[in-house]
Design goal:
Layout lengths: L3 E5 L4 H12 L3 E8 L6 H12 L4 E6 L22 H4 L11 H16 L3 E3 L15 H13 L2 H4 L6 E3 L7 H10 L24 H13 L12
Parallel strand pairs: 1-2, 1-4, 2-3, 4-5
């Protein structure tokens, strides 16, 4: 029987690459996205479209209002950093970090997995190039996987052994893009910007846009995403 995979899908470059990798491995795809009050809601449209393109059996969009807590440039009235160098980005945990976001998302994914009978959760976190997020580190993923098997009915009864797959965690952005291109992924389906305009066009100068541009340049491929600022 073909295994089911829960894919945490933001609509971005990394999570879409992970989805394609899981599909190549023969998993049945169940995609999960979150409307958490983020300013870059255009990513939700991308996630829905990507799920259809790759024939996900089910796509769920869960509403979790993190704006009520704020504390992040993505959910609060805090300016998104722009025009930063990679050195500046790696100086400290950025204001685009959303408190406990991956912990919340993985918890929902775990609940979803128990219900549909999946043992495999796929997440597009990355610890190389630049991340700066404490909930993207390998030790965090290992700790959550242990918690998942200790704190679920399926885990305690021994019916399931949950695994959190993070195939990109030790890859650079350029390596990720090369992997996706080899799999035939159209990155024009994806969106990476933290601060798009009202029409959903990527700004081109936030950390996420700059790292995406850098990745495509280093990988030697054309980035199909349209930017307000191309330089």
């Amino acid at each position: 029987m073909t295994k089911k995979a829960i894919i945490l899908l933001s609509g971005g470059l990394d999570s879409t690459t992970v989805l394609v990798l899981a599909k190549k491995q023969g998993y049945r795809l169940f995609t999960l996205s979150f409307d958490y009050g983020q300013r870059h809601r255009v990513e939700l449209e991308c996630a829905c479209r990507i799920s259809k393109v790759f024939d996900a059996e089910e796509h769920r969009e869960v509403k979790v209002d993190l704006k009520q807590f704020g504390g992040s440039a993505l959910t609060d009235s805090i300016d998104v950093p722009t025009h930063r160098s990679v050195a500046d980005m790696s100086h400290e945990i950025p204001v685009t970090y959303v408190p406990a976001r991956n912990t919340l998302f993985l918890s929902y994914a775990l609940a979803y997995a128990e219900v549909v009978g999946s043992e495999d959760l796929f997440l597009g976190v990355n610890a190389l190039d630049y991340s700066g997020y404490p909930d993207c580190r390998p030790e965090y993923i290992e700790a959550f996987e242990k918690t998942a098997n200790l704190g679920t009915k399926a885990g305690v009864e021994g019916r399931s052994r949950f695994t959190i797959h993070t195939p990109l965690i030790q890859m650079t952005k350029a390596q990720i893009i090369k992997q996706g291109m080899e799999l035939g992924l159209d990155y024009g389906l994806t969106h990476s910007c933290y601060n798009p305009n009202e029409e959903g066009m990527a700004c081109g100068v936030c950390d996420s846009c700059l790292l995406r541009k850098k990745g495509f340049q280093e990988a030697g491929f054309f980035d199909p995403l349209l930017y307000q600022v191309n330089s």
